[in-house]
Task: structure prediction
Amino acid sequence: MNALRSLFFGLLAPVIAVAIAVVATSVVIIASGSDSGVGSFWSIMLAVPQDRILVNIVNQSSMIYLSAVAVAIGFRMNLFNIGVEGQYLVASYAAATFVGAALLPGFVNIVLGLVIAIAVGAAWAGIAGLLKTYRGVSEVISTIMLNAIAGIVVSYFLDKYGVHGGNQVNTATAPESSWVPGWTPFTSADGAIWSLDLLAVLVGVGFWVLLSRTRLGFDLRATGASTTAAVASGVSVERMTLVAMLLSGGVAGLIWMPAYFGSAHVYGTTFQAGLGFTGIAVALLGRNQPLGMVFGALLFAFLSAQSNSLTLQTDISSSVVQITQGVAVLAVVVAYELVRRSRSRVEQRAVARATAPVNQEVAA
Amino acid sequence: MSPQQTVAEAAPEVRLSGIGKRFPGVVANHDVDVLIRPGTVHALVGENGAGKSTLMKILYGVQKPDDGTIEIGGEARRFSSPSDAISVGIGMVFQHFMLADNLTALENVVLGAEKLHGIRGAARREFEAISERYGFGLRPDVLVEKLGVADRQRLEILKVLYRGAKVIILDEPTAVLVPQEVEALFRNLSDLRAHGHSLLFISHKLDEVLAIADDITIMRRGTTVGTAVPAETTKRELAELMVGSELPSPGTGESTVTDVVQLRLEGLGLEEDGRAVLSGIDLTIHRGEVLGLAGVEGNGQAELVETIMGMRKATAGRIVLGTEDITGWTTRERRESGIGYIPEDRHRHGLLLDSPLWENRILGHQGERPNSRGPWIDREGARSDTRAIVEEFDVRTPGIDTAARALSGGNQQKLIIGRELRGEPVLLIAAHPTRGVDVGAQAAIWGHLSAARAAGLAVLLISADLDELIGLSDRIDVILRGRLVGEFDPSEVTPRDLGAAMTGGDQ
Result:
């Protein structure tokens, strides 16, 4: 009963949000005067994905999920790490440079490459953590600035030390022994589901365990729920800020690793930017919950992947799905607040029922 | 006592009839009838949670009633915001002052009412005229941060008079004052009444009500349960109407004080922003002893508590718990070494309001059994222990998965007290343990504190309720401007003596 109710309340907000997003998208398509019409838009978007697109959805949602977890670690203690974008950029470049140098044999190279990605991501986020702890600099400002700095620093190093070929620059290609290809469910033309997508599963489970089963996770959530109460309970907010930033950056460092080891093998033109910002949206959509963000990541990956067919078959731009995504995030924030209020009303009534005895006597 | 009217335009009659207000799950007000005669002090008495605050918010236009009518001077009114109430001459002085510290007294008064008398000469003349007329003795150019509590309160009253209020609501105006200041306030209120103003005086201190009011309305459980005039009633009758049963009183019985020192502060000092908040605090608390700390709020009690808890770092002196010097310890280390903490503001420092009760049981005791094992949270352990607390401390809740926010103040407090006593602490810091708690919960909390004391607990008790302090303490120290200025034996001291010491004794 209780579990059913909490499941109902848990699903209510996202369902409402997605419904609103669908309506808003349809309105935009109608208003913009498409010849193909709303019907064809939704029939393409909701079609059973082709094999190629299915593979793409799995790979993309894994990376988006990693990004969302990185953001959520900060969000859970009211720390707005907007810098996941810069953190995984720096981490991806560093890892790709190290792996490409092929200093070590295959498997060790892979493991160390991942460790370097985590360490560099954490270090980049740690700068913002230190600034906040020791100088009171808002992490929102510092991480946004670090995003810009990350782009400049990486371009500089890539240009200086990268491998120039034609009009593009890449890091040295990873030795074939350090590739982690994956599993090809369909034909090889449809691509492979990268093995390192499993990192998303590991990180998701780890995040859940951290939050609900450990003292560190309790302190993290307590700090997010009420900093003053957390301090009174003995949490050192400075330390938690630093720990959360390092964890967040560490996970951020892993975001692009499935793609790197799975198919790219170089850092350069193949690098997929923007996942750090998608992660913020998905963390909001999934309410920073380990499971909620799985659905959020799948939804975002699904919409983006399906929208590729739009340009071929209709006159509707594939960017329309960004409206769907954006509205969904906006609507979910509002819907969660409304659901939270109605839930707390239900709860207060339950308390009133349980605690008020029947004697509502009228005094003279 | 008949109302005198020396000013032509008297206050209008205010009549509230059948007022009802429902919040989700609670009926805050129902069938409330109040009649405020022009030019009188009308006292509204009732326990915390009796619905007084809701009622005055309705009268001041902060909240709209679901039922009933408000008549001002015989005309039915509907207020959709406080500005509607102000426009018909109703003003309100909140318990927590709404003043900007870094502005002058005049600027605070003019702020938001610039249209009335401008912001310059005319405004200043009006300010001075009001201050003169009612003997407030306020200077327009002094910074509010330099004003004491009583002056700030007078400034708040001046502020509403400036806006033309004839009916002034005062929400527990004496809660922040010491007895001597209360007398001064009452002189001001009499002056206001003499000039034809009506005053709605909200309080639960019956002595004061009997001293100042012309009429009394008593509220209980959200409704008005009776009216009285001071000449024909007694404190006991009022109290019984308020609580519907006899008032409990604090008392600890036999002394259980041992000669084992549990907490010793040596020359403790705290300096913040170049200002000495605490200086030269020396005190000891023995096992089985309750040390009461009396003081007007804002004289360093909150800072002392937070320094002992490690939330602020002492800048001088030592804190010794048992035999260990804990001056440099973190809050967590202190809590784990057995200091229990009942914070002054349970919403800010004691609870995670949106978390379930069992998680709140863990808060502050993250590293202790049965809440955790090593780095892991022991959910089952914490949950079953929460059930035990709910049972033993009579926390009224449908279950341990209920969010703390949904509970009433008294039940939240019982949960906190249960949690803090559960781990068998050696020292308990209890700041205003029964503030905002109903009479039933209050008696229960007193009982738990006495029992823990008998079992050898050392308690530092801070309270603004001098009766509570005298009733529960084995010794009382008085704090004034961050220093301990006197020690009293509760069996001999009266609230008046304490009041004198709390203000420096010379007023």
